[in-house]
Amino acid sequence: MAILGDRCHVNCEEAAWLEVLGRLADSEPQVFREWLAQAVEVFPFAAANAALAISEDDIRSLPEVPDAALRETFLGHVQGRQLLLSTFLHLLRQERTFRDAVRRNIAG
Fold first, then answer.
1. How far is 27 from 44, CA to CA, in rounded Å?
2. What is the number of domains present in the chain?
3. Residue 64 is part of which domain span?
4. Residues 28-73: pLDDT tens digits?
5. Whole-structure pTM value
6. Is residue 23 a contact partner of residue 75, using CB atoms and an 8 Å limit?
7. pLDDT at residue 12 above 80?
8. Is 74 within 8 Å of 25 (Cβ atoms)?
9. What is the rounded CA–CA span in Å between residue 70 and residue 62?
10. Which residues contact 88 (CB under 8 A, 6 or more apart)?
């Protein structure tokens, strides 16, 4: 990942983005929860033209789970993965807090 001022470049081939978010869920659960909340908000716009098996109805009410269950709950199932993948780049571009968290978890 390269950070250039307010811009960043992330090379997340195949499932690398999944591992980055998994590390974030494990090491910074509060940031991961904020990421989820933002993902739900931007989903209708970020995923408008994506071929997905989920809809806004599927993500309207996310389950409350303990920190230890975040990775399995949201990255271990297709609904969570599609929500997070379809909004991943949008959130990285828009939220410096998230870029910084990804950088910390890539290095880790």
1. 28
2. 1
3. 2-107
4. 999 999 999 999 898 888 777 776 777 777 777 778 899 999 999 9
5. 0.78
6. no
7. no
8. yes
9. 11
10. 12, 17, 21
